[in-house]
Amino acid sequence: MKYILETRNLGVRYGEITAVTGLTIRVEAGEAVALVGANGAGKSTLIKSIIGLLRLSQGELLFDGQDVRAVAAHLRARLGIGYSPEGRRVFPGLSVRENLEIASFAGAPETRRLIARMYEFFPALAQKESALGWTLSGGQQQMLAVCRALMSQPRLLLLDEPSLGLSPKLTDEVLWRIPDIAKAGTAVILAEQNLTKALEVTSRAYVMRVGSIVLEGPSSELRSNPSVRNSFLGGL
Amino acid sequence: MLQLLVNTFALGAAYSLLAIGFVLVLNATGAVNLAHGSFVVVGGFLSASLGTMLKLPGAVVLPVVLAGMMLVGGALALIAYYPLRNRSAVSVFISTISMSAILETSTLLVFGPAPRVGPPVLTAGSVELGLATLNVQSLATIVLAIAIVGAQYFVLSRTVLGKRLRAVAEDREMARALGMNVNAMIFVTFGIAAALAGAAGLMFANTFYITPGDGEGYMIKTYVAATMGGWGSLRGAIAGAFLVAAFEVLVPSLPLMLPAMVDALPSFQAAFSPTASTIWLYLAFLVVLFFRPQGLFGEAVQQRA
C-alpha cells in the first residue's frame, strides 16, 4: 500500500524538551483523517514538522513515498503539501484575492480559475475580494486560510485548529467542506480540539495525549468509545 | 520662490527613493541596513564614471546603474545578511556597518578621494516658466523619481512577485510554508533597495557632487526620514523624506524670504543659516519622537521595530 503521508516513529524536541515522540501515522490519498487531543497534546507540533517548520529529532517522514526530511519547507509546499495554520495567519496587508494569488504556482489563467473555484466554495470570500486580510472576521479569515492552502492544488492538506475562535455555525461551515475536499482527491489531516465535529467530518482518527498517539481507528467507532473522551479529560 | 519649492520637491523625491528602499529591507528582514547610505555613494560614483566615459545624460545611464546596484544589493545580502539571518537584529546591524565601510573604502580605492560630479539627468541649464527660471536638473529629478516610485509601486501592488515580497515582509514563516522561496525574495528586496538608492546617487552626484565618505550623511537622513514617517511605513518614508528636504532647503531660505525679519532681528539670519537648519531638523525629529513615537504614518499594519 502506498500512502500519501507516512510518519514512522516521528519525534520532535524543543531544546531539551520532547514535544512529541514515537508518532506513526499513515494517510491514504484522498482520505480525511482527524488528529484529536487536548491543548498541548502535540497536534500542532506534528503538523509543523510535516510541513517543515520544525525539524525532526527522530523517526522518518515520507510524502508520497519520498523521504522529505531534508526537503526545505517551501519545497515541501511545492511538492503538494498545503498548510492552514493555527491562528489562520492570513497576510494582513494583502487583499483576499492577493492572499490567494500568491499561494498559486500555476500560470495566470489557471490561478484565476482556481480563485473562482474558491469563491464557489466559500461565497463569503467573493464578496470580500478586495478587502485587506486584517479587516476580515475570524470566520472569513479561516475560510481564506483554507482556500489559500488549496491554491497550490495540494495532495495533502494540513488543517490546524480551524474551529478555534469560531462560532458553532461558522465551524460547521468550514469543517463540512472537508469531506468534499477529500472526495476531490486531496487527503486531509485535521488537527482539532473539537472532538465531536472532527470525528463527524473524517473517516479515521488518531487520538493524541501528551506527545504520543494513544488510540486510532475509524472515526465512527471512536465517536462511541468512552475512553476517547476520557483521554481528553485526562489529557492535561 | 517657485525654484525653492521645486528644489525642495526634487530633494524630497530623491530622499524618498532612499527611504523607500530602506523600509523595504526593514520590512522584509526586520533588519536595519546601515549600509544603505553607501549604496548612494556607489551609485553616485558609478553614474559619474559612466557619464564621463560615455558622455551620456543620467537618464540614459540609469538602467546600467540600476542593474549594477541590484547586483551590489544582492551581494550585500549574501555577505552581510544571509549568514546572520537567524541571529539577533543587532548582528545584522553591525555587519551592515562593516559592509558600509567596505563599500566606501572600495570606492575610495577605485575612484580616489576627489569629489566627482555625475551627469545631469537630462541637461544642465534652466528653462523659463512664466516669470520664474527653473533648473532643468531639479525638474528632471522630480519626474524621474516619480517614475521610479511609480514603477516600484506597480511592482509591489500589481505583480505576483511584488505581492509575494509583501507577504514575505508580513510573515516570513507563513510565506515559506506556502511555497515561497523566502531567501530569494530577500535577495530581490535588497537588490531593489540598492537600485533605488543608486538612482538617488545618480541624482545627488550631479545636483551636489559625491565623495566616498558621503554615505554616512545619507544614511542618517534616511534613518531620520524612515523614523519620522513611521517605522516600516512606505507612505511614511516618503513623507519623512519630504520633511527632511524641507528642513534642508526651506528653513535656510527663511531669511531670504522674510527680509523684514532679518531687519527687525539681526540674529534671524544666523538662526536659520544652512548650518543651523541642521539643528532645527533634529529638534523637529526629537519633537516627533516625543509626541508621536510611532511616527507620522505609524498606525499602518506594522509590528516589527
Question: Which features does this protein show?
Answer:
heterodimer, A: 236 residues, alpha/beta, Rossmann fold, six-stranded mixed β-sheet, four-stranded antiparallel β-sheet, 11 helices, 37% helix, B: 305 residues, mainly alpha, two-stranded antiparallel sheet, 3% strand, disordered C terminus
Description:
The complex is a heterodimer of chains A (236) and B (305). Chain A is α/β, with parallel strands linked by helices and 236 residues long. In chain A, 37% of the residues lie in helices and 26% in strands. Chain A has a six-stranded mixed sheet with strand order 6-7-8-3-9-10, sandwiched between helices. Chain B has 305 residues and is an all-alpha fold. Chain B has a domain at 2-214.
Summary of the model, kept short:
Chain A is about 35% helix and about 25% strand. With about 240 residues, chain A is an alpha/beta fold.
Distance between the termini of chain B: 39 Å
Portion of residues in beta strands of chain A equals 25-35%
Q: List low-confidence stretches of chain A.
A: none
If you compute it from the alpha carbons, what radius of gyration of chain A comes out, rounded to the nearest whole angstrom?
17 Å
Radius of gyration of chain B: 20 Å
How is the largest sheet of chain B built, in terms of strand order? 1-2
CATH topology of the domain at 5-88 and 154-233 in chain A: Rossmann fold
- Shape descriptor of chain B reads globular
Regarding quaternary structure, what we see is heterodimer
Helix vs. strand class of chain A: alpha/beta
Mean pLDDT of chain A: 93
SSE topology sketch:
The complex is a heterodimer of chains A (236) and B (305).
Chain A: E1 5-14, E2 17-27, E3 32-36, H1 43-51, E4 58-63, E5 66-67, H2 73-79, E6 81-84, H3 96-101, H4 108-121, H5 123-127, H6 138-150, E7 156-160, H7 168-175, H8 178-183, E8 187-192, H9 195-200, E9 204-209, E10 212-218, H10 219-223, H11 226-233
Parallel strand pairs in A: 3-8, 3-9, 6-7, 7-8
Antiparallel strand pairs in A: 1-2, 1-4, 4-5, 9-10
Chain B: H1 2-29, H2 36-54, H3 58-81, H4 89-111, E1 126-129, E2 132-135, H5 136-158, H6 160-170, H7 172-177, H8 182-207, H9 215-229, H10 234-257, H11 259-264, H12 267-271, H13 274-291
Antiparallel strand pairs in B: 1-2
Helix pairs in contact in B: 1-5, 1-6, 1-8, 1-9, 1-10, 2-3, 2-4, 2-8, 2-9, 3-4, 3-8, 5-6, 5-8, 6-8, 9-10, 10-13
